[in-house]
Write a structure and sequence with these properties.
Elements lengths: L11 H15 L5 H4 L4 H16 L3 H14 L4 H13 L3 H14 L5 H12 L3 H15 L6 H23 L1
Helix pairs in contact: 3-4, 4-5, 5-6, 6-7, 7-8, 8-9
Length: 171
């Protein structure tokens, strides 16, 4: 039996095409949607559908719309946050944390993904990690009135976690 199977060999022209597409996606900031001539209107139509499904608590259906958007435009933080929100509502906390982390990478100035990561950590029962994430939110929102609501929520969640820890110690 031969170590190489000629039927599994990849055509050199196909290899070149794969390398070109990979370069476009990873190094040049091109999206699959651009390769398929999707327009902003196309994206908005799908986003509106997903948004409406989410607001109707049809999270599985909304997840499909936001997955589509992320496949075709992996560079739009709004689509990534929407996908993560669906995952969070479906209690897929580990996946949601990973998706929110991507949103944080794309827009480090937005404290919302970190706040939602803390909520997911709470859902997983990881209180100490949630506290650390909430403290990061407080640091990121301090002195920024546009993020006052996020800072207030982080403070309320920290208080909730502190009260919960105090009650556990009393037992």
């Amino acid at each position: 039996m031969s170590a190489t199977n000629p039927s599994l060999a990849v055509d050199p022209a196909l290899q070149a095409q794969i390398a070109e597409v990979t370069d476009l996606l990873l190094n040049q900031g091109i999206t699959i949607g651009q390769m398929h001539n999707l327009t902003d209107q196309d994206y908005e139509a799908v986003y509106t559908l997903g948004f409406n499904l989410y607001n109707q608590a049809k999270y599985e259906d909304a997840l499909k719309a936001f997955t589509f958007l992320n496949f075709f435009n992996h560079l739009e933080p709004r689509y990534i946050k929407a996908l993560a929100a669906c995952q969070q509502m479906l209690k897929r906390y580990e996946t949601a944390i990973q998706t929110y982390a991507i949103a944080t990478i794309l827009d480090a100035s937005d404290p919302n993904p970190t706040l939602h990561i803390a909520e997911c950590l709470m859902g997983l029962g990881m209180k100490e990690e949630a506290i650390e994430a909430l403290q990061l939110v407080l640091e990121a929102t301090s002195g920024k009135p546009q993020y006052a609501a996020q800072g207030d929520r982080a403070e309320a969640l920290l208080e909730l976690l502190s009260d919960s820890a105090a009650k556990e110690e009393e037992k």
